[in-house]
Amino acid sequence: MTALVALWILVPAALFLTLVLYTVGIGLRTRNADLRGEAAAAGADGRAPRLVTVRGLDGPRT
Questions:
Q1: Domain ranges, residue 6
Q2: Sequence-distant (≥ 6) Cβ neighbours of residue 38 within 8 angstroms
Q3: Is 53 part of any domain?
Q4: Domain assignment present for 22
Q5: Percentages helix, strand, coil for the chain, rounded to the nearest 5?
Q6: Most CB atoms closer than 10 Å: which of 2, 11, 58, 59?
Q7: Is residue 21 in a domain?
Q8: What is the reported pTM?
């Protein structure tokens, strides 16, 4: 009975700590990530700028 109670306490605690460490690891790996998109610019014909800028994934960042 005592072992069963210990499992009810230790297993959720271990899962929680695993998820916390996983989340902290993702945060540490992505702390310098630049997620901002490029500023929208008006087209050559004077129309409103596009809301989404599509760029090739292997192109250089400016």
A1: 1-29
A2: 53, 55
A3: no
A4: yes
A5: 45, 0, 55
A6: 11
A7: yes
A8: 0.52
